[in-house]
């Protein structure tokens, strides 16, 4: 039974995402994606118009999935922003510990697409900016003097977690991420009006 257009698009994105993440984006040809998704190349081009279009959709879709995951773990963590921040890092630590971990999908896209004009790069930068803003919103709820500075420290830890997890595995420095996040949060200077 043939798939509806929306189902075909979602199916192709899922297959392409697995291939892009496992084999590399540039190393994965459009014909391989079509073959693995069991769709004709013209069908794939009709949906995405080009490989750049498919890659752009993959980056956006991957970011949406991460946004949903972050929203879910933040909500489950309860009202304390410290717990919410730790929940985000615990989630990413779980990804790093996975046997299929190959690095941060956004870092991979940024490395493979250095041209600032390419949609995939723009979407990956937007994804990183979203996380930085999300961390800033959460640190803004803490009783710290410079929430933006704390958010930037956390963003650096996030990027380092991915890079270290890829190079040295989950039992390398990545295993210390929770303690480092707790230390950054607890050592931040308090807001003047909250100091006692």
TrEMBL record:
Q: Do you know which PROSITE patterns this protein is assigned to? A: HTH_TETR_2
**Annotated DNA-binding residue span(s):** 29-48
Q: Tell me which species this is from.
A: Actinomadura luzonensis
Q: Does the keyword tRNA-binding apply?
A: no
Q: Which UniProt keywords apply?
A: DNA-binding, Transcription, Transcription regulation
The protein in question is named TetR/AcrR family transcriptional regulator
- Top-level taxon of the source organism: Bacteria
Q: Which residues form the HTH tetR-type domain?
A: 6-66
InterPro entries, alphabetized: HTH_TetR
């Amino acid at each position: 039974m043939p798939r509806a257009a929306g189902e075909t698009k979602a199916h192709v994105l899922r297959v392409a995402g697995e291939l892009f993440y496992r084999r590399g984006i540039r190393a994965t040809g459009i014909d391989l994606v079509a073959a693995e998704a069991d769709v004709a190349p013209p069908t794939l081009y009709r949906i995405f118009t080009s490989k750049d279009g498919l890659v752009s959709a993959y980056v956006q879709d991957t970011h949406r999935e991460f946004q949903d995951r972050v929203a879910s773990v933040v909500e489950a963590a309860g009202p304390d922003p410290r717990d919410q921040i730790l929940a985000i890092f615990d989630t990413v630590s779980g990804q790093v510990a996975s046997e299929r971990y190959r690095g941060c999908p956004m870092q991979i896209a940024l490395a493979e697409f250095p041209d600032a004009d390419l949609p995939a790069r723009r979407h990956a930068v937007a994804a990183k900016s979203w996380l930085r803003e999300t961390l800033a919103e959460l640190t803004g709820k803490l009783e710290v003097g410079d929430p933006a500075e704390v958010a930037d420290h956390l963003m650096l830890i996030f990027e380092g977690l991915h890079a270290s997890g890829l190079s040295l595995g989950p039992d390398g420095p990545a295993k210390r991420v929770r303690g480092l996040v707790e230390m950054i949060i607890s050592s931040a200077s308090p807001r003047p009006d909250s100091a006692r």
